[in-house]
Design a protein that fits this description.
heterodimer; A: mainly alpha; 10 helices; elongated; B: mainly alpha; Rna Polymerase Sigma Factor, Chain: A; 12 helices; 0% strand; globular
Chain lengths: 202, 215
């Protein structure tokens, strides 16, 4: 059997890997039909499976701790298979405000302390978790204006809409995860709000 | 062991069931390892690392995966991740060791069907590809998207071939069996085997028109 590889084939492979040419799914369909050349040792397979199990556990714990109020509210509602209208009336807030909260489009500081108290009781969230979510959501809403300005300058002829949406999603996650310093005035406003929330719950 | 379906693996992984990881490894590790070493000629040690990375990415991103049409959706999704990892491996190799050095140059040199200028065409494309991946002196990161641009001529040259010729070249480069290609093109497998080398030669001649060679 000739085991040598033709250079033209390798050029074509590069073009395939770089997405310049396609087999319209034929390659992918062929893969499961091929005879296996080798199998890894049982120990290697077990080691890999163990590594994946650790990754699975950590990815699940990441997914179960919501970063912002929007993520939390959306996740909770979807888990309960409820519609937005089923939730906002129970929380005593308007439909618009609830929808904006779910999409992290409004600062939690704009919602009254009484409403937060109601929500905390309704969702049974510990105060420190709620404070953390309020802090992150406020930060996200505050900085969103600046990344929207940046996105407005973003231009690409192909898939502009999709790329912009991906970038925005990535930026949102980044802002939600990052610990960014707010301007002093804004920070003081947030601290005062959180202090009032804590006092209100004493 | 009874073969598990992709649907089952996805369900297990999404539910955080550890058995899903074992099923994923059982079904995909050897399959991807075979592809990496046999089709893309990735050295065994690198291939094992690459496949581990692919399966790790599958587990980490499983929450974003949704079936849209059939059980095969998952396989296609895994293969897309695999392809991207192999591409990254090739890019890394191109920007460090150089691809030409890793190619079996003798295969081309020995073949009397290829002239010196045709060999130069291949070398020129590879050099162009490598240059787009090399870090510029000002320290800026290379534009990864431009790496594909260096291979644009290949797609253009393929477009000049007849449909069956194009399918034959693309598929054989990925070691798809002649019988499978015969089903797609409607040409007998024997005929395709005979014509493969000639079509390659024809392709190279067309490619030469698109690639300027520095003399």
């Amino acid at each position: 059997m000739n085991t040598r590889r033709d250079t033209i084939d390798l050029l074509l492979q590069l073009a395939f890997l770089e997405g310049k040419i396609t087999t319209h799914g034929l390659y992918e369909q062929t893969v499961p039909k091929r005879k296996p050349l080798m199998r890894s040792a049982d120990t290697a397979r077990a080691a890999l499976a163990q590594k994946l199990e650790v990754a699975l556990l950590s990815s699940r714990s990441r997914a179960t701790s919501p970063l912002t109020l929007g993520t939390f509210l959306r996740g909770w509602r979807q888990h309960q298979s409820l519609r937005p209208q089923d939730v906002f009336s129970r929380l005593g807030i308007s439909s618009n405000i609830y929808r904006m909260l779910e999409r992290d489009r409004i600062s939690p500081l704009k919602i009254s302390l009484a409403s937060w108290k109601k929500m905390r009781q309704f969702f049974q969230i510990p105060l420190n978790v709620l404070e953390d979510m309020i802090r992150r959501t406020h930060q996200l809403v505050y900085f969103r204006t600046s990344f929207r300005t940046t996105l407005a300058r973003y231009d690409a002829r192909k898939n502009k809409k999709m790329k912009a949406a991906t970038l925005e999603k990535a930026a949102e996650e980044l802002f939600a995860r990052a610990t960014l310093p707010l301007p002093q005035k804004e920070q003081e406003k947030l601290n005062a709000f959180l202090k009032a929330l804590a006092n209100d719950n004493v | 062991m009874a073969r598990v379906s992709n649907q089952q693996i996805v369900r297990e992984l999404k539910e955080g069931d550890r058995i899903g990881c074992r099923h994923l490894v059982d079904l995909y590790q050897w399959r991807l390892l075979g592809e990496a070493t046999r089709v893309f000629r990735v050295p065994r040690v690198d291939a094992e690392e690459l496949v581990n990375d692919v399966l790790l990415a599958v587990v980490n991103k499983i929450s974003t995966f949704e079936f849209k049409r059939s059980d095969g959706d998952f396989h296609f999704w895994v293969m897309t991740i695999f392809r991207n990892r192999v591409r990254d491996f090739m890019r890394h190799r191109a920007s460090t060791d150089g691809l030409w050095e890793n190619f079996d140059e003798a295969a081309l040199e020995d073949d009397k069907a290829y002239s010196a200028s045709e060999r130069e065409v291949v070398r020129s494309i590879l050099q162009n590809y490598e240059e787009t991946l090399t870090l510029p002196e000002d320290g800026e990161a290379p534009a990864k998207n431009s790496a594909g641009g260096a291979l644009e001529a290949i797609a253009q040259a393929l477009d000049k071939l007849e449909t069956w010729e194009r399918v034959l070249l693309r598929c054989r480069a990925l070691e798809i069996p002649y019988e499978e290609i015969a089903r797609q093109t409607g040409k007998p497998a024997k005929h395709l085997k005979v014509y493969h080398a000639r079509v390659k030669k024809k392709f190279l001649n067309i490619l030469a028109q698109y690639v300027p060679i520095a003399r």
